[in-house]
């Protein structure tokens, strides 16, 4: 949320207009039975405001932090992966006051209710409205091509073993794979499609917030974490721990199905068992390229398998958070 900076007129550039936002008021009425009211307020908002040189696009991510606390993050040009210009976003955190959420600034008002945010100048003139948007990955529901190895399609968990006790694979009553599994089959070079669902855990923080991990060959982790609205570090969603942060933080709000599409090239070894070429990976998160042909010089600490020339299984980490999976398949190369 652009609330910092110098005093300006309401009709400045897109970024500067949002710097002048003073109050964000949110209705607590959700109209959605069974959904936590904070979750219904949390989400993404994007639209056009009046700028000095014409219409300008703005994106805002509103994050629930529990106990009536919220954080708003504003992006010039649109949302991450959808127009954001890459400049440092502005953010502010506040607490609900008798059911009203107010981010206070000095020069304009922004009101969030009934599924949209309206921006109004201090003299009462509307300068734009940002509808709530619910983005979906472009690869969500992607069907496995001919020859693919289907690891999970909601019918059974026969292709998996529990990672903690090597017991039979476990799925929920509504046909989802739970966290904490290793695939029975092992893979070398391959392509992976994986869909995952992060639980809404507003009171948790950092690595305790909807944490899991997708370990390629049981060695190299692509982090799974509720990182909605965060900076996008190597230990956040889409990051390769201790190796690389994602090019863009494409994490959607918890409660949204998300996708990883990964092309993995295994490390190469000579006849003596010595590594002569590091593993590499190209990763798309929700259809957006976040790592391209990234070199993986070492395994992730905590991975169940040591580096070596042998093929490895897909490991879905159990970090004591109820992360769920569906539509998992592999193409061997």
Report on the structure:
By secondary structure, this protein is mainly β. It has 2 domains: 14-133, Lipocalin; 149-332, Jelly Rolls (Sandwich). Helices cover 3% and strands 43% of the residues. The protein is built from 2 helices and 23 strands. It has helices at 14-19, 37-41, and strands at 21-26, 43-51, 54-66, 69-76, 90-97, 100-101, 108-113, 116-121, 126-133, 149-152, 160-162, 177-178, 181-187, 190-197, 212-216, 220-224, 257-265, 268-269, 275-277, 279-285, 288-296, 312-316, 324-332. The chain has a 9-stranded mixed beta sheet. Strands 10, 12, 14, 17, 20, 21 and 23 form a 7-stranded antiparallel beta sheet that branches. A hairpin with a 3-residue loop joins strand 15 (212-216) and strand 16. The radius of gyration is 22 Å and the shape is elongated. The N and C termini lie far apart (45 Å). 44% of the residues are buried. Mean pLDDT is 86; it is low at 1-33.
Low-pLDDT residue spans:
1-33
Strand order of the largest sheet: 1-7-8-9-2-3-4-5-6
Return the CATH class of the largest domain. Answer: Mainly Beta
Helix content: under 10%
Please sum up the structure shown.
The protein is mainly beta and about 325 residues long. It has two helices and 23 strands.
Fold blueprint:
Blueprint: H1 14-19, E1 21-26, H2 37-41, E2 43-51, E3 54-66, E4 69-76, E5 90-97, E6 100-101, E7 108-113, E8 116-121, E9 126-133, E10 149-152, E11 160-162, E12 177-178, E13 181-187, E14 190-197, E15 212-216, E16 220-224, E17 257-265, E18 268-269, E19 275-277, E20 279-285, E21 288-296, E22 312-316, E23 324-332
Parallel strand pairs: 1-7
Antiparallel strand pairs: 2-3, 2-9, 3-4, 4-5, 5-6, 7-8, 8-9, 10-23, 11-13, 12-23, 13-22, 14-17, 14-23, 15-16, 15-22, 17-20, 18-19, 20-21
């Amino acid at each position: 949320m652009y609330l910092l900076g110098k005093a300006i007129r309401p009709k400045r550039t897109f970024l500067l207009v949002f710097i002048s936002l003073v109050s964000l008021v949110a209705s607590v009425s959700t109209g959605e039975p069974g959904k936590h009211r904070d979750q219904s307020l949390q989400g993404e908002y994007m639209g056009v405001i009046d700028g000095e040189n014409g219409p300008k696009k703005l994106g805002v991510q509103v994050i629930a932090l529990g106990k009536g606390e919220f954080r708003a993050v504003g992006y010039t040009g649109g949302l991450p992966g959808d127009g954001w210009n890459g400049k440092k976003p502005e953010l502010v955190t506040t607490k609900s006051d008798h059911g009203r959420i107010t981010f206070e600034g000095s020069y304009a008002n922004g009101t969030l209710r009934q599924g949209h945010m309206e921006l109004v100048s201090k003299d009462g003139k509307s300068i734009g409205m940002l509808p709530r948007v619910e983005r979906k990955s472009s690869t969500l529901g992607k069907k496995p091509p001919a020859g693919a190895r289907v690891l999970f399609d909601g019918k059974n968990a026969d292709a998996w073993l529990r990672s903690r006790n090597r017991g039979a694979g476990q799925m929920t009553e509504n046909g989802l794979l739970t966290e904490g599994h290793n695939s029975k089959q092992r893979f070398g070079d391959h392509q992976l499609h994986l869909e995952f669902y992060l639980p809404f855990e507003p009171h948790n923080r950092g690595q305790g917030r909807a944490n899991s991990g997708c370990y390629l060959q049981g060695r190299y982790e692509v982090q799974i974490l509720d990182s909605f609205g965060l900076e996008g570090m190597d230990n956040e969603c889409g990051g390769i721990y201790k190796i690389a942060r994602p090019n863009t933080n494409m994490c959607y709000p918890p409660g949204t199905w998300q996708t990883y599409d990964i092309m993995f090239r295994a490390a190469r070894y000579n006849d003596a068992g010595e590594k002569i070429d590091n593993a590499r990976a190209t990763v798309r998160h929700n259809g957006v390229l976040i790592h391209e042909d990234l070199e993986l010089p070492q395994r992730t600490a905590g991975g169940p398998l040591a580096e070596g020339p042998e093929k490895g299984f897909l490991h879905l980490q159990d970090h004591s958070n109820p992360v769920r999976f569906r539509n998992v398949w592999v193409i061997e190369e």
